[in-house]
Model the fold of this input.
Amino acid sequence: MKKLLPLVLLAISLQAAAQQDPIYSQYMLNPLVINPAYAGLSNNLNVMGSYRIQWIGVEGQPNTFNLNGSSSLLQDKAGIGFTFSHDQIGNTKNTEVNASFAYKLELGHDRTLSFGMQAGLVNYRIDNADLNIYDEGDEAFTNNERGTTLNLGAGVILKGSDLLIGVSVPRMLPTKFKAGDSEFELYNQHYYVFGAYVFYLNEQLKFKPTALVRAVKGASASTDIGANFIFNSIHSAGAFTRNFKTYGIMLQTLYREKFRFGYVFELPTNKSIGTKYSTHEISLGIRMSVLSFHENTITNF
Done:
């Protein structure tokens, strides 16, 4: 790889401080990526994959692949799920696998409270061979680094036919990594609070505003605010902003009530990295009723 100044700066910054969690713009389409309490909450089987490439044109730009699935069990009283993610920024790569379990309480009035936990492993790698080092004898870039650590996470979600509210901490344990004689954190604890509400405008049209707040020690809170219109409970289109520094559009469609496709286009402003570095995120999913107590109906969440 050539012309690696942006890549080197990214790598140095990642090795000097704890990393940020991967960003997912389609968190309302698939809350399991940030909250284990969503496992089985749709009362059927859901499997989804997504790919996000951020800041196209910046060498060493972040890109994230995620594959996850969940199913309700025990007459819809519980749920299980899994998440697999691979996140890369420059020469730094994280691979994470988690298994999740959720228990649901029916509150009446079509409200469900779900408590979820997840556990898994995070593998961390720094491949300095990908860098074009100016000083090949620089000890900071001499050796590749890698390690594996345990992860635990927890979350709570309140779900109704017209609302969804969640709070979660996907990584609760300190994730420290030793590189030679030095030690640094892979991740700080991130706290997520998200919510959405559906307004029924008429028989064919719904309006769904959404919000997500992501907080982490040592950095300012990040806030996503979005507005979506849902047509015939099948197609949706909307727009959102992240901290009023990045703006995006979001499209989603459901085919034959089973297959889901989502697409996001983001454009940062000059308050962020600049308008010429766009971001794209796509997702493909399938929802099925595979057990006798699973539901076939299309829901807002």
Observations:
- The radius of gyration is 20 Å.
- Residues 1-18 have pLDDT under 50 and may be disordered.
- The CA atoms of residues 75 and 292 lie 9 Å apart.
